[in-house]
Amino acid sequence: MGFRLTAPPLEGSLVRLEPLEARHAADLAVAAEADRSTFGYTWVPRADEVPAYIATQRERAGEGTVAPYAQISRATGHAVGCTSFCTPRAWRSPRRLDAVEVGWTWLGRSAQGTGINTEAKLLLFRQAFEGWGVGRVDLMTDARNTRSRAAMERVGARPEGVLRGWGVSRVAGEEGRLRDTAVHAVLAADWTEVRETLEKILSERTTLAPPRRS
To answer: Helix, strand, coil: what percent of the chain each, to 5?
Structure first.
């Protein structure tokens, strides 16, 4: 049997990544409806689709092909989005993971621009490179999604080009159409520099953040 993905809890100062479960549904339904104009080219379930979305991701988790997480804001204690490890590849040995993708990522409007995405990527990359010893982590998005592509580059993923007709469009009105997919990646050789950059960004955010009111 090949390598099976797992979703160990990952803890940061801004976000806690918990294995996705049915108990996260109520919070995620709220986050998914807050301001859907911010999702653009990213597919996000509607509030009434969240339970089925969670059930599907948990089914995939049982097969070992996806390791889905709820993103929990440490400031509020509420689930504010999702992310996942997916597309595991074990090329050299069925028991050793060589590469993995971070995908199925979205955040509700209130969590965007708060540093949660940056810290979540740091936690996920650390698990992939230091926990599993992968050589490569992929991040992919619709080639038209300039906002997502810029965010990928901010967290250290290097652009590698566009795969034409690679994947299905998630844009409303484009059901059934294929999309061009932009590919970004972080390699094991990049990890030390990427980790230090992300830690510096998060440290500066903490230093510059105004004190919380009690």
So the answer is: 40, 30, 35
